[in-house]
Amino acid sequence: MAARTDWKRRALLAGGALAVAGWVKGVPYLASLGQPDFAFEDIPDLPPFRRLQGVGASTPGAAIFTGITANESEPETDYELEQFVRTNPCAAFFGEGSSDTVPVAMFSDFACPICRVMDDRLTDLQESEPETFHIVRHQLPLLGIASATASRAVLAADLQGRYRDMHTRLIRTPAVTDERFIAAIAENLDLDADRLLEDMQSNAIDRRLRLTAAIADVFGFFGTPAFAVGRTVFMGSIQTGSLSKLIADEKANLCLI
């Protein structure tokens, strides 16, 4: 009798485990079946770009240039960058050159917790759907000097071809303001630490940050994360299934540079 009771208990536990597994795997799929159609609105003066309505939360920033104190730009220069964005929005978002895959630009801040979630979703989606889209990452440090320092560090590492390595390391310790600590991380990653520290204060990095800020001004990105998927822009979080569907929809609407 006791053996039969134990067997029933084990069966119930196993059945419960299977039910939980089915729920975890099945609910996202069922939810995706009921996803509503996307709702868009045109962006005045920036055709054919459009804004996706009804997306998730974002982390608001205080001001576009918060934390960027070194080599602040002249107003005329920023005006020129904004004019460049309006005249060449695809190049501003995605850089020069062309590709057969959908470009996805992500704007993030190291102090933004939602950005970390979306970066993981975007990375996982790229691994599961290779050769479908490519990612262009923008640093938009809205949340203080630590965000600006981390942003400069990853952009400087990018000049040595190691953006993702530095990003992965700094995302675990986002509140970094000490350049000596940045140098130690660079050495641990086998980067040229002296060059990285010098590049962090370079005009090239200044311009990249100011260009990203100009894009944010033109398209109204007042917080992070923000995205441009092809010619569709939005702020905040979005589920992986919806992001995949949006990328697929944008295949016929590639942003030509």
What does it look like?
The strands form 2 sheets. The protein has a 6-stranded mixed β-sheet, sandwiched between helices. It has helices at 2-33, 75-87, 89-94, 113-128, 145-158, 163-170, 179-188, 193-200, 203-219, 240-249, and strands at residues 40-42, 50-52, 59-60, 102-108, 133-139, 223-224, 226-229, 232-235. The protein has one domain: Glutaredoxin (3-Layer(aba) Sandwich). The protein is 52% helix and 12% strand. It is globular. With 257 residues, it is of the alpha/beta class. β1 (40-42) and β2 form a beta hairpin. α7 crosses α8.
Name the descriptors.
257 residues; alpha/beta; Glutaredoxin; two-stranded antiparallel ribbon; 52% helix; disordered N terminus
Low-confidence stretches: 1-34, 62-75
Alpha carbon gap, first and last residue: 76 Å
The overall strand count is: 8
CATH topology: Glutaredoxin
Name the CATH class. Answer: Alpha Beta
The gyration radius over C-alpha positions equals: 22 Å
Give the name of the CATH architecture: 3-Layer(aba) Sandwich
Short structural description:
The protein has 257 residues and is α/β, with parallel strands linked by helices.
Write the layout of secondary structure elements.
Elements: H1 2-33, E1 40-42, E2 50-52, E3 59-60, H2 75-87, H3 89-94, E4 102-108, H4 113-128, E5 133-139, H5 145-158, H6 163-170, H7 179-188, H8 193-200, H9 203-219, E6 223-224, E7 226-229, E8 232-235, H10 240-249
Parallel strand pairs: 2-8, 4-5
Antiparallel strand pairs: 1-2, 3-6, 4-7, 7-8
Helix pairs in contact: 2-9, 5-6, 5-8, 5-9, 7-8
